[in-house]
Amino acid sequence: MALHVWFRLVLLSILWGGSFFFAKIAVGELGPLTVVFARVALAALALDLALAAVGRGQFRASAPWRAYIVMGLLNNVVPFGLIFWGQTQIPSGLASILNATTPLFTLVVAHHLTRDETIDRTKIAALLAGLAGVAVLVGPDLLLADAGLWGQIACLGAALSYAFAGVYGRRFRAMGIAPLEAAAGQVTASTALILPIMLIVERPWTLPMVPSPTVLAALAGLALLSTALAYVLYFRILAAAGATNLLLVTFLIPVTAILLGSIVLGEALIWRQLGGMALIGLGLVLVDGRIGRPRRPAE
């Protein structure tokens, strides 16, 4: 991958890593489906306003709403719902390990549904190294924790849904849909899909109090940074590098979270975390292919 794609991938991992922080604050006062709705609705508002500002309105007859609805289901509604529910059954660390299986699922899905992202030995070695790195980062204790089977299945289902979304989203480039349009269409469709479910299940109007300023700020960060900006980057990377390389971001999220905790919060790094980062780095180097690639003779 080109260096600018790697830069976007790291930036995306930081934005999505921050989503766990913002969501943790928000669910302290709001139901999980309400948080999901606020996340996609505020992101949709911001992105649709951005499109209107550049004279490219989303609500037009030629907009591919069927594709947006499918993408919204695969990339937002289904995985968000499964992960939120799964985290009520299992530790968050175990959930992050299961979420890091996304590139492995993507490798299989892309191999069967695309012509240019087939399985090879280098990809398998890279993804297994990355998955091992995530497991080492989180540590063995969480694997021994008492965790519900259905919670684990839910998180694996979310990872599989993300894999299908990564492959399905490739079509937007072929359709001539710009990343900003694809991101706006996806979250707008997701808003319409999750709204009735949220109203029926959680009935947010029954909340005894208005959300605190801290929660409102967390929702703004979750929507504008971890969703609106993140999905513009998502579709840019997808168009440039493909689904398998894009979803390597799930390996980077724990790394960026730990490094941010060390730099911003002064949390101590331990040797196990450094070893996990090294394994993840090895996997990324194998995917990049720069090291070990035979040099072409000078003409």
Question: Can you walk me through this structure?
Answer:
The chain has helices at residues 3-26, 32-53, 65-86, 92-99, 102-113, 121-138, 149-168, 171-174, 179-202, 213-241, 243-246, 249-264, 271-288. With 299 residues, the chain is mainly alpha-helical. It has one domain. The radius of gyration is 19 Å and the shape is globular. It is 74% helix and 0% strand. The protein starts with a helix and ends in an 11-residue tail after the last helix. The longest helix is centred in the last third of the chain and has 29 residues, at 213-241.
Characteristics of this structure?
single chain; 299 residues; mainly alpha
Strand content: under 5%
- Please trace the helix and strand order, writing H or E for each element: HHHHHHHHHHHHH
End-to-end separation: 24 Å
Please bin the fraction of helical residues: over 70%
| Mean residue pLDDT | 79
Parts with pLDDT < 50 across at least 5 consecutive residues: none
Provide the number of structural domains. Answer: 1
Total beta strand runs: 0
Structural class of the secondary structure composition? Answer: mainly alpha
Instruction: Give the radius of gyration.
Output: 19 Å
| Main sheet characteristics | none
Write the layout of secondary structure elements.
Elements lengths: L2 H24 L5 H22 L11 H22 L5 H8 L2 H12 L7 H18 L10 H20 L2 H4 L4 H24 L10 H29 L1 H4 L2 H16 L6 H18 L11
Helix pairs in contact: 1-10, 1-12, 2-3, 2-9, 2-10, 3-7, 3-9, 4-6, 4-7, 5-7, 6-13, 9-10, 12-13
